[in-house]
Specification:
single chain; 440 residues; alpha+beta; 3 domains; six-stranded mixed sheet; five-stranded mixed sheet; 21 strands; 30% helix; 23% strand; binds zinc ion
Length: 440
């Protein structure tokens, strides 16, 4: 791979070093460490500033695919494949064939920025007392949606950065390893993503994110945390984060997921965590239990000060869902994805649960799920809405939201009642509609 001038397409400067190429590939695959990330970023910024493109080397012919450096809405950088008419596409084995950056750029721009600045939750001034956190529910009208609590926004930003809110067909999963527990893989991705966030200047979230529940709350844990808190920079509140799997909540006691060979661990809160509710009842687990630990201003005691219970698809898949019905939808849409990718193998397919509003010319909307096909002659985007009866607010606003969603792609509705009784039938209908739309 080498950089070329985008007007003349002639090579410029020295060829990329082996380290630079490895860093760029790792960034694309989402496995870059901090050094590789910084190195890749420098190359991409250099190319952008000087008007250079990256010429791939995955084709046998002399004409190679070209990539342009882009900055996404979240501030991260990457390459976008230039796949216009007459341009060669990447070979199937090329890392850049996995995702079409045109589509990625589309997604990154319209979404409202997930977390602004540092991801700190506790602020030096203001009310940090563990009061009753505002429960969040989908508001009756999308134009007056309640704002998402910061603790939820930080968790969701992490999940998006880690790519955990989407999946690709089974054959495309490059991290498929029979010997590795999928939960371990998800936690690893979460940790890698956390390296891209800072709590305060120079304080990476990665060093303050606990994901191993058994050690949480032990005397050693508190000793280590006190030490870290003592080294905290002036002007920002000392805080650390945790993310554990939880199976249920009773009153204010959170039951963490049972780990093999370990006793059941519970965490007692003295406030209500943020959690989605349907008719006043918290959506059932499994959950990701994510929160922030800080020092109580009065007593100096270290305790949990903010927390969210985010319902997820399963213990293996950290995909947030709004209801049990969406778990059914996700499960059956994965079959839709398999079927579509076997019928149209030239495209790169993905299924995504959007976690932040998408801005359209008519206003913001948040589709339930989205299936995308990129890298072929054109990009296809299908918005899938679960028409659930357990969401009475939904019908009031659906005319408005659905009209907005049509800006993103073809809208396919899923019948909630059918999903409940037989998800396979509901899923098949989506598959058929989607394949019909592909043929048009
Ligand atoms: Zn390539």
């Amino acid at each position: 791979m080498r950089l070329v001038d985008k007007r003349t397409l002639k090579p410029v400067g020295d060829p990329l070093s082996a380290d630079q190429m490895t860093a760029l590939n790792s960034l694309e695959l989402g496995v870059a460490d901090t050094n590789q990330d910084a190195l890749a970023q420098r190359v991409i910024e250099h190319a952008r500033n000087r008007g250079f493109w990256l010429e791939c080397d995955c084709r046998e012919s002399s004409k190679q695919p070209l990539l342009a450096g882009v900055v996404y809405g979240s501030g991260t950088v990457g390459w976008r494949s230039l796949l216009g008419e007459g341009r060669p596409s990447h070979s199937d084995t090329c890392v850049y064939s996995r995702r079409n950056r045109d589509a990625m750029a589309y997604w990154a721009t319209p979404q409202t920025t997930p977390v602004d600045g540092f991801c700190a939750i506790l602020k030096p001034s203001g009310d940090n007392k563990p009061g009753v956190a505002p429960g969040y529910q989908r508001a009756g009208s999308v134009t007056r949606r309640k704002s998402i609590p910061r603790v939820t926004r930080v968790l969701r930003s992490l999940l998006v950065e880690a790519g955990l809110n989407s999946c690709v067909p089974y054959s495309e999963r490059y991290d498929q390893d029979e010997n590795v527990n999928p939960t371990t893989v998800s936690y690893r991705k979460l940790k890698q993503a956390s390296a891209k966030f800072e709590i305060s200047k120079g304080f990476s979230l990665k060093d303050y994110l606990h994901t191993f529940a058994p050690s949480y709350g032990t005397p050693y844990f508190f000793k280590e945390l006190r030490q870290k808190f003592n080294e905290w920079p002036k002007g920002s509140m000392a805080q650390s984060f945790f993310c554990f799997q939880a199976e249920r909540i009773e009153k204010r006691t959170v039951f963490l997921a049972k780990l093999p060979g370990k006793p059941q661990k519970v965490i007692d809160l003295d406030f209500d965590p943020v959690a989605p509710k349907i008719h006043g009842t918290i959506v059932q687990g499994p959950y990701l239990f994510f929160g922030v630990t800080g020092k109580d201003a009065q007593t100096g005691m270290i305790d949990i000060q903010r927390a969210v219970l985010e319902p997820v698809v399963s213990r293996k898949e950290f995909v947030p869902v709004d209801s049990d019905l969406e778990r059914e939808a996700w499960a059956t849409l994965k079959f839709t994805l398999e079927r579509a990718s076997s019928e149209y193998p030239d495209y790169t397919w993905s299924l995504t649960k959007p976690l932040f509003d998408i801005l359209t010319p008519e206003g913001a909307c948040l589709p339930d799920m989205v299936i995308e096909a990129t890298g072929g002659e054109r990009t296809y985007c299908f918005v899938i809405e679960c028409m659930g009866l357990d969401r009475p607010d939904y019908f009031a606003s659906k005319d408005v939201t659905h009209s907005r969603m049509r800006h993103i792609g073809d809208l396919i509705e899923m019948d909630g009642g059918e999903l409940k009784s037989d998800r396979t039938i509901a899923g098949r209908k989506v598959t058929e509609t989607l394949l019909d739309l592909m043929e048009r």
